[in-house]
Amino acid sequence: MTAEVRVHHRPDRRRAVTAAFLSLFGLLLLAGPTRALTPGSVVVLPTSGIVDAVMADYLAGGLAVAADQGASAVVIRLDTPGGSLDATQKIVSSLLTSRVPTIVWVAPAGGHAASAGTFITLAANLAYMAPGTRIGAATPIDGSGADIPGALGDKVRNDTVAWVTSIALERGRPVDWAVATVTEARSSPATEAATVGAVDGVAATIADVVRDASGRTVKVGGADVILDLVGDPIEELAINPLQGFLHLLTDPNIAFILFTLGFYGLLFELQSPNFVTGTIGAIAIVLAFIGFGSLPLNVGGLLLLGLGVLLLGLEPTVPSHGLLTVGGLVCLLLGASALYSQPGPFEPDVGVALPVLLVAAATGAAFAIAITTTAVRTRRMTAPSGTVPARVAIGTVGEVRRPLEPIGSIYAAGEEWSARTTDGRVLDRGTPVRVVGTDGLVAIVEAAPSG
Hints:
With about 450 residues, this protein is α/β, with parallel strands linked by helices. It has 14 helices and 16 strands.
């Protein structure tokens, strides 16, 4: 009989995985808006999603690049439900101090410039809205979605009113309408916003925006500039891959999926160490928390979500007759439903989409059932007729991996084996054992001295 020789390439695999992640991250860091712009072009900056630090950096960088390369104007194509106050302030500051004429175009049809988007739209030199869009609803609220009471509420509202008033006065917008978006949560469709002068017109396409903006006088750097954009080339300066990836993480569904997958990866690593699932799981959780940083996260919901995944992961190792699966699914559903709290002053109302939640619950249940079924079948497995099943050698010393009650598993000879004790004694995880026999695929063990 020839002994089987097993060659492990785990160190090489670890280096390969690490090198792949580092290479990908390096390529993303090197990526950027390096494409040269045509002097005198109209630069379009497509901007959508939650207003966060990534969006603020992208817009500030895009305005700087456009000014440095001699663009005739910058059009920010905006569609946002709101977002971070700090990011909004940075974007507004970039627009008010821009060295190139700025135009905000709320598009596409069905889009909106809500909450923080209202301030961004008002801060541009010119503003247009596509048919079917809306703007407004910028009332400050607290973390639970209610009005901020008392002196603190008065302070926040007064400061916000003063801020929107200053922007409206600087850009020649109707102050009463701007203030009403804060004090009364006023929201207007495109036609109404154009009628009251909150925006300069309704434009269905970028060509309409350019045509209507041409001939208008705007103030840039304290000087009056007459726009002459008709015939200028229109070039889009998209967000670079790294910024786009980080901005994608602020999607509430993406953050939820990453956290769930990351938790599963860590559980796999604990149950069957292999480096890869643990590394990927840790990276997924870190990325999820990057997204959570720009979202109104509810810590209680996050803890429930983690507990649910943990219970589902424990189902194959603990004989609970399905109770852990049921408890895990309940915690998973409750945690996902309560993962995001009510928005802050300028943040959007977000939540995990119901289809995503149901798919996650069904996947978790299928995973727990499949693993449990496989474990049960493995324990009952017998060797086929005419074959010799793989056995751990008698006398091999190992360690209890899954408690022997009396059936469990041990780690011996570099592998995990199903095992039971000779006398039905219960042995806890980590107890040293010695193999004294085999029963099919099950190793029969007894406690060994600690030495």
